[in-house]
Amino acid sequence: MQDIIDSSVVENENAARLTGLNRDYAALGDKLGRRGVSIDAIRDKVAAFGIAIPSWGVGTGGTRFARFPGPGEPRDIFDKIEDCAVIDQLTCATPRISLHIPWDKADPQALKEAASRFGLGFDAINSNTFQDQPGQRRSYKFGSLSHTDAATRQQAVEHNLECIEIGKAIGSKALTVWIGDGSNFPGQSDFARAFDRYLGSMKAVYAALPEDWRVFTEHKMYEPAFYSTVVQDWGTNYLIAKELGPKAYCLVDLGHHAPNVNIEMIVSRLIQFGKLGGFHFNDSKYGDDDLDAGSIDPYRLFLVFNELVEAERREAPGFQPAHMLDQSHNVTDPIESLMVSAGEVRRAYAQALLVDRQALAEAQEANDALMASEALKAAFRTDVEPILASARLKAGGAVDPVAAYRASGYRRKVAEKRPATEGSGGGIV
Ligand code: LRH
Ligand code: MN
Ligand code: MN
């Protein structure tokens, strides 16, 4: 397996931090031991927890108003795979990439070879019928899988079938479908008929899924349609998964809800009824901001993981969620953001593993609201960084991934061979 960052850089950076880490790990281990928790067992669970990197996340995303690209932007999917390899080399937390078609379209064999050189695999494959592509016969301006025109729907179905074929060739085991279909004016669309058309199209996609595949449908309350969206919330998403059958699951993108919506409760409901497919992790203050995971409301991320850990503990039927990031980086180096975000997701997982489940259950039974809340807060307040760092170190990664990345000069080096790209306005202002 090939390393992109010189191993001596990582070793030197780690050596400078080793004594401190060992002391912090021992102190935390002592503290957890008094609670009957084995720090090594938590560390091993964290080390086994992988998060998929979205291929589109390693380029500067920008907003719909402008994009300010940084130096050394990836030119194509093969550059993106290399950037993903750097993230995984240093974090040892991101073994798979989630591709978006047609953005990442290339010879599947070449994709597979490029990824496996770095020990990477592919997670869910994403279809795109929310944009028109050059030379496309029919436009998605007024919808895709739910379009009023049967030929446009058929084109969108065929695109999803092609994604399944590509996914099969590269070793994906799931298709994620998000559509921008909806309306901008009251009356523009008949809600029921549009949903019927969508279900009809998705049934055709579902029928083409291989035996061991799953399909994830992703809900989103608004944007690009600003009055109504065909797959607008978890309720509609659940109906879809139920209508389609056992291979259909709901995908929860944290940014796709109204502000203050209780997402952890949505997660609980989907788990309870065996339909949680996975996540697009990110954070937001206002809407689908696509900010870095854990950067605004880490407690919410922890509360989501509290549900996941509880489901894992009770071995909830059908519980096998896919964990993917879906972020847009506007002002940071995307590699740094993704490394930190993968760490934040693991942090929430580690903290949730520390919840005293018996104390929580007893407080719930006794209607002791304060102690129930404290059981969660005690775990959330624990600084689990030594656990995360130790998991990385043991797997051959960096104690401090951002420091090692900066010391490596990777961005400067790729900037020499990757030409600068132009920033662009969204053109919607
Ligand atoms: C839509 C979305 C969806 C797309 C991605 C690029 O807002 O979250 O997952 O595929 O962004
Ligand atoms: Mn998403
Ligand atoms: Mn989104």
TrEMBL record:
Residues 96-290 form the Xylose isomerase-like TIM barrel domain. Pfam families: AP_endonuc_2 (PF01261). Keywords: Isomerase, Manganese, Metal-binding. Transmembrane segments: none annotated. It comes from the Bacteria. The keyword Manganese applies. Signal peptide: none annotated. The keyword Phosphoprotein does not apply. This is Xylose isomerase-like TIM barrel domain-containing protein.
